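Q: what sequence does this backbone want?
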């Protein structure tokens, strides 16, 4: 893992849609699965909401990083340890979730368990924003820390490059989020597929 470098600031249609879905509401509970960011805290709390941070990638590395990262995700003891420590919110506790690119580094069985857990923890009508790389032949993809600059703009800091568990096309994403109400896609110029999912 490398230190955050190469900050890139760009508009994000997914971020704009996410905040459009909660505009005019107060006192919401939102989850951010990137590392803690003061700028994200300022944007969220400035709108009158609460934000919880959980660096899911760091949690994955802590539980599965010793040896073969993806093979370890099939180990029952390691998987149970991860599920005890990650995403421990009560049912219907969350009004929205900023997942970013964290789902790309979960092997299929664990990914489906995590998506199902988030589905239970989100309120009906809540939105989830997730990013997936669109380059199907990429051996590795850039991993970023995501910080909100405002309700339309992101600052991305490169953390490292990693091998994703799989590359998702639109159909695979529709299957992944099949229990949700709707899935909407935006393909950006940097080959990120931004996905808004409504619970």
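A:
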């Amino acid at each position: 893992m490398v230190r955050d470098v190469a900050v890139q600031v760009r508009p994000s249609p997914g971020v704009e849609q996410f905040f459009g879905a909660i505009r005019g509401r107060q006192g919401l509970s939102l989850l951010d699965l990137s590392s803690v960011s003061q700028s994200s805290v300022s944007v969220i709390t400035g709108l009158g909401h609460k934000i919880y941070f959980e660096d899911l990638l760091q949690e994955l590395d802590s539980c599965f990083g010793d040896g073969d990262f993806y093979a370890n995700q099939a180990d029952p003891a390691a998987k149970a340890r991860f599920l005890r420590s990650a995403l421990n919110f009560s049912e219907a506790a969350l009004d929205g979730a900023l997942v970013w690119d964290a789902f790309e580094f979960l092997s299929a069985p664990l990914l489906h368990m995590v998506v199902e857990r988030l589905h239970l923890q989100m309120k009906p009508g809540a939105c989830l924003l997730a990013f997936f790389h669109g380059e199907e032949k990429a051996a590795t993809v850039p991993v970023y820390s995501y910080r909100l600059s405002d309700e339309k703009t992101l600052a991305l800091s490169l953390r490292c490059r990693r091998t994703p568990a799989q590359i998702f096309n639109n159909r695979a994403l529709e299957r992944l989020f099949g229990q949700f109400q709707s899935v909407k896609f935006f393909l950006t110029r940097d080959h990120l597929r931004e996905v808004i999912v409504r619970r």
